[in-house]
Amino acid sequence: MNVAILGFGKEGKASYNYWLKQGSSITIFDQNKIPASKLPKGCSAINVKDSFNNIKGFDLVIRTASLNPNKISTEDKIWSATNEFFSKCPAPVIGVTGTKGKGTTSSLIAHILKTAGKRVHLVGNIGVPALTVLPKISKNDIVVFELSSFQLWDLEFSPNVAVILMIEPDHLDIHGSMQNYIQAKSNITTHQTAQDLLIHHPTNKSSILASSFTKATKVAYLTKQGAYVKDDFILIDNKKVFSVSYIQLIGSHNLENVTAAITAAWQYTKDVESIQKALQTFKGLPYRLELIHKYNNVSIYNDSFASNPSSTTVAIKSFPNNKIILICGGFDRGISHKKLTKIISEQKNIKSILLIGQVKDSLRKDLLIHGVEINQVMIFSNLEECLKRALSLAEDNDVILFSPGFPSFDMFKDFTDRGQTFTKLVKQFTQTP
User: Fold this and answer.
1) Which of 21, 136, 295, 374 could link 430 by a cystine bridge, Cβ 3.0 to 4.6 Å?
2) Against a cut of 0.85, is the pTM above it?
3) What is the pLDDT of residues 219-248, one digit of tens each?
4) Neighbours of 185 (CB within 10 A)
């Protein structure tokens, strides 16, 4: 088989290894020139510069997830690693999508099922490239797949259990419009049947819209259809599962993630004791409202994963009893931040807003328009100076919240690089001499 792989990042490399084992002849296309030292031995690569035009003569053209299928010009079959995985996976799949919370929800579903004694594979953005895991999966296993809008773009299959969390504006620079973004998300259920299950957010309009064309049975979490909250307890099927007060995750938004995860896991285990144990031991993921240090009774949180304004909105509402020193800003993806700046201006417990990144000037302008005092807003050219200032401002029982609200690409490789840098700087500036 003659295969073209478009994009040679983490997923592209996994695709290369997978199709190489199938005995395929492979050509790599990438918009960045790949040094010969980075290429697999004997493999040819073509630098396509700005566009993937006139690609021909291949049995399969494998697009990398973030590459819009409409920007590929070919008469050959366009395919993806996600499509290949679904077409070959022998086990049932729980798929999770949404704008925020899908990593936490996917991980918690997997943790619950593993605690209940199931053999589980966590793949997608939160795990490892799915094709890497495929040879290890048997029919009695369960796969939990975190699915981004990019992976769902042209998906020709659907998971047995689909979960659609809250959908907010994101990636509009790539999808072009909110309508296109919701359409991509809705593709998680396009190929479901009446025997499948779709779990969705109960009130988020975009989630409800994305769920509206399914043939599957629909269940809204946070309602009695699935897992819900009553008298500070999580219940499902009228069974008490866990006290809300014992959940290890910070913020009311994580209660949504927990109820979504329990609703999904319930389809494969009704072992309440295992679910309780899983909830007691699950402490969340790195760079998602992660408490990384307590310094002179000041709590420092790393929320680098917050790459859109709605995520930062959720973060600042998670500390109603503390004064907050907020660090935010990043790459301008073209998403309006007026709602974020309005909410920041209305939060009476935010004492200072420290801005970095490409959007810092426009954020400052909007904050001042919304009535934030000029001495509350500070601009910095780098994260190092910003954190030093935050530490100097912090007082007893304050929270320093690093929740950028924008992508990292103006200053860092990705959100992990940004999060690692922040944690490293915190350790550097707070260590005892």
Assistant:
1) 295
2) yes
3) 999 999 999 999 999 999 999 999 998 888
4) 26
